[in-house]
Amino acid sequence: MRVKEVADLVGISVRTLHHYDEIGLLIPEKTTEAGYRIYSNDNLETLQQILFFKELDFPLKKIKEIVCCPSFDREEALILHRKMLLEKRSRLDKMIATIDKTIQHKKGEIRMTNKEKFEGFDFRYPQYEQEARERWGDEAVDNANAKIANMSQHEQDAMTKKMNVIYKKLASLRHGSSKSDEAQAVIKEWYDFLNTIGNYSLEAFKGLGQMYVDDERFTKSIDRFGSGLATFMRDVMADFADNHKK
């Protein structure tokens, strides 16, 4: 199939397919002398895998690492996709139910508790655990998980609430300077908070801030509190780390 035929079949743009080719993510089976890209059935199967991963908010760089790995198993990946999509559907179902209840609440038909208003939201990034293990090792992650596991539900809820408060503080400052005293004071709260559940050196803290921008999933979640917040946090975290190394 030619690139236009694939684009029409799948529902994506020709430009997207060209980009996938340019970055080595999906290279057509062959290119004709006239410059036409020709895609095989094997290419289409790979494209299906790519789009499953994208639906799960994997960044293209990570998708390329996975699908281009010699040990990549498509059947195994499909089983994983199904499991993750079921988890995503469950979260979305909870959020839809929360929307329906909120509409009823606004109409005066029911009364919602504050806790019910936020059912379905989760900013704790459990989906990044494997990447954390790869970056910082099993021991650091297991220690953090053990601390969380030993907390009561009330303590875990309080932790999530505190985290969201810090995000909101930073969001209110995101149009100012990353070096301001106020921004640096709030990011210290973030540094101290993270070190209550993990063990972050200044270098690891700075690296984490960079990941907020490099990883589309982090950016998407953080920017829910305010557009551009992930980039602002990266800059404030870098300034904080550099300042405290001196």
Tell me about this structure.
With 246 residues, the chain is mostly helical. It has three domains: 3-67, Multidrug-efflux Transporter Regulator, Chain: A, Domain 2; 73-112, no CATH class; 122-245, Antibiotic binding domain of TipA-like multidrug resistance regulators (Globin-like), CATH 1.10.490. Helices cover 68% and strands 2% of the residues. The protein is built from twelve helices and two strands. The chain has helices at 3-10, 14-22, 41-55, 60-67, 74-106, 129-136, 138-149, 153-173, 181-197, 202-214, 216-222, 229-245, and strands spanning 30-31, 37-38. The chain has a two-stranded antiparallel sheet. Helix 3 (41-55) packs parallel to helix 5 (74-106) and helix 9 packs across helix 12. The radius of gyration is 22 Å and the shape is globular. The model has no long low-confidence stretch (mean pLDDT 84).
Task: Chart the SSEs and their pairings.
Layout: H1 3-10, H2 14-22, E1 30-31, E2 37-38, H3 41-55, H4 60-67, H5 74-106, H6 129-136, H7 138-149, H8 153-173, H9 181-197, H10 202-214, H11 216-222, H12 229-245
Domain HTH merR-type: 1-69
Keywords: Activator, DNA-binding, Transcription, Transcription regulation
Protein name: DNA-binding transcriptional MerR regulator
Q: What's the gist of this structure?
A:
The chain has 246 residues and is mainly α.
Structural shape: globular
Main sheet strand line-up: 1-2
Count of strand segments: 2
CATH architecture of the largest domain: Orthogonal Bundle
Instruction: Say what the CATH topology of the largest domain is.
Output: Globin-like
Oligomer kind: single chain
> Could you describe the largest sheet, including whether it forms a barrel?
2 strands, antiparallel
Measured between the Cα atoms of the first and last residue, the distance is 59 Å
| Class inferred from helices and paired strands | mainly alpha
Summed up, the domain count is 3
- In CATH, the homologous superfamily of the largest domain goes by the name Antibiotic binding domain of TipA-like multidrug resistance regulators
Low-confidence stretches: none
Average pLDDT: 84
CATH class of the largest domain: Mainly Alpha
- Percent helix among the residues? 55-70%
Tally of separate helices: 12
